[in-house]
Amino acid sequence: MNIILLGPPGAGKGTQARILIEERGMVQLSTGDMLRAAQASGSELGRKVKDIMARGDLVTDEIVIGLIAEQLESGAAEKGVIFDGFPRTLPQADALGELLEAKGLKLDRVIEMRVDDDELIARVTGRFTCGACGEVYHDVTKRPKVEGVCDKCGAKDSFVRRADDNEESMRKRLFNYYRDTSPLIGYYYAKGLLRTVNGLGAIEEVAAEIRKALDE
Ligand code: AP5
Ligand code: ZN
């Protein structure tokens, strides 16, 4: 099964993707994670996108389509893919359709996660992540059980915060979401693939809604 998690920054796409990976053995393809990895490796691509990402703007369609094409080419889709943060524009959505079709694959569901703006800003400004395993935390709603130690992998003092998780960049990311990405809701509705879940509940409640949307 190949699915898209579609939603504004902070909606919980990454959090829910990790649950789906554990439960279903699916593979997550997150263009945001790939771009942050490129930055961490100091590659030319990483240097090119650093400032664009920090201020909350979108990188070019060409770059992200290339990253996804590379992953699909190397067989990532064999286990079923969760597309997270991609596609984000109509040209990216068209390109994904073509890439999947060329591999004889299809998209099964698009899960739209709805959360209001004030909650999104609170989520993103409180977020931190384990640099060792990628587990996502929050200052208020999801703290590690032992201060400074990752629940998942046990790494100590490995927590990192993203350069774009400040209110100014977040407002830009929200603006870009409504302008460039929200048209995809209608695009996938018209294809009969869209299911909308309330992303405002607790993490486990949202996971339950997603399970239902995938299995119906
Ligand atoms: P990307 O990495 O994709 O970031 P994003 O879309 O802004 O999404 P986030 O990672 O911020 O949020 P999320 O929905 O995954 O939330 P999470 O689960 O972490 O993109 C970053 C940048 O890369 C872009 O701005 C752009 O520059 C570039 N880029 C990437 N893809 C691109 C593309 N396709 N085209 C062009 N440019 C691209 O949760 C957030 C917080 O909330 C966490 O602290 C979590 O613990 C908490 N939380 C989660 N669920 C709940 C809940 N149910 N209740 C309470 N708290 C919760
Ligand atoms: Zn960890």
TrEMBL record:
Record domain Adenylate kinase active site lid: where: 127-164
Main location: cytoplasm
Top-level taxonomic group: Bacteria
InterPro entries found in the cross-reference section: Adenyl_kin_sub (IPR006259), Adenylat/UMP-CMP_kin (IPR000850), Adenylat_kinase_CS (IPR033690), Adenylate_kinase_lid-dom (IPR007862), ADK_active_lid_dom_sf (IPR036193), P-loop_NTPase (IPR027417)
Residues that bind ATP: 10-15, 127, 136-137, 201
The enzyme's E.C. designation: 2.7.4.3
Keywords: ATP-binding, Cytoplasm, Kinase, Metal-binding, Nucleotide biosynthesis, Nucleotide-binding, Transferase, Zinc
The family this protein is said to belong to: Belongs to the adenylate kinase family.
Subunit structure: Monomer.
UniProt note: domains: Consists of three domains, a large central CORE domain and two small peripheral domains, NMPbind and LID, which undergo movements during catalysis. The LID domain closes over the site of phosphoryl transfer upon ATP binding. Assembling and dissambling the active center during each catalytic cycle provides an effective means to prevent ATP hydrolysis. Some bacteria have evolved a zinc-coordinating structure that stabilizes the LID domain.
Name of the protein described by the UniProt record: Adenylate kinase
